Amino acid sequence: MLFDFDTITLAALSIALFGAAFVRGYSGFGFSAIFIAFASLLTNPVPLVPVVFSCEILMTLVQARGIRGHIDWRRVLTMTAGAAVILPFSVWFILSAGETTSRLVVFAIVLLMSLVLLTGWTIKRKIGPAGHAGIGMISGLFNAVGIGGLPVAAFMTAQPIAAATFRATMIVYLTCLDLITMPMMWAGGAVTWETAKAAAFAFPILLVGVLLGGRQFLSASPTTFRKFAVMLLLTLSVLGLVRVLL
C-alpha cells in the first residue's frame, strides 16, 4: 500500500485528489492547497508534497495546448526568479521540522491566504517587476509545503486580469515553481521510489478531474468557482487547526 496508508485513508485521499484536480482544471490554482490541506487532516503532508508537484507537472502537460496563447510570460519569469531565491531556505526548514509543525504551517498559511482572498482585496496601481519578484519570494517561502500558489492567486486576483490569462499564468507559474522545488526536495531525501509509484497511481484520477474541470471553465463563471474553492480551503484550514491544537 502506498506510503503504508490503509485502504480507507487511500480512498479518502483519492477522492480529494479528484476534487482538487477538478478545481485546478477549472480555475488554474488550488490543486495543491486543497489536497495538502485535506491530507494534513489525515497524515503528515510532507512526503506527499513531491507527489503533488509531480501531479501538477503532469496536469500542465495535459492542459498545455489550451492555455499557451494566454500565458503572461513576464509575470511568470519574474515571480519564478523571486521564488528561486528563497526556496532553498524554506525547503530546508520544512524537511527539518516535525509532523506537528508541518501541519500547523500548512493550516496557518491556508487560513491566512483564504482570508485574504475572501476580503476582495484589490490593487489600484500598476505592479512592476519588483512587486512580482516579491510575491514570488513569498510564494517560494510557502511552496516547501506545497501551497506556494495561494499568495500568487491572491496577488493576481487583486488585479484586473482576464480569467483566461489568470488561469494560464497560474498553471505555468506553478509548474515552474514545482520544477525548481523538486530537485531540492530530492536532495533532502523527500523524493523516493514511493513518490514515483504514488504519482503513477494518481495520474488516471488527475486526468479525469482536470479534463472535466477544464470543460467546465468554458461554461461557467471562474469568479464564482474561485469563491467556492476559497471557502473550501477556509473550512479545511479551520478543521485542521482545531484538530492539531486540541
- Largest sheet, strands/sense/barrel: none
Structural class call reads mainly alpha
**Radius of gyration over C-alpha positions, nearest whole angstrom:** 17 Å
Count of individual domains: 1
Classify the beta-strand content into a percent band.
Answer: under 5%
**Spatial shape:** globular
End-to-end Cα distance, whole Å, is 30 Å
- What is the N-to-C succession of helices and strands? HHHHHHHHHH
Continuous helix count: 10
The share of residues in helices is: over 70%
> Which oligomerization state do the chains in this entry correspond to?
single chain
Low-confidence stretches: none
Number of DSSP E strands: 0
Q: Roughly what is the average pLDDT, rounded to an integer?
A: 86
What is this structure, in a nutshell?
The chain is mostly helical and 246 residues long. The protein has one domain.
Overview of this structure, please?
This protein has 246 residues and is an all-alpha fold. The chain has one domain (6-245). The protein has helices spanning 7-27, 31-42, 49-67, 73-96, 99-118, 129-142, 149-157, 163-187, 193-217, 222-245. Helix 2 crosses helix 5 and helix 5 (99-118) runs antiparallel to helix 10. The radius of gyration is 17 Å and the shape is globular. The model has no long low-confidence stretch (mean pLDDT 86).
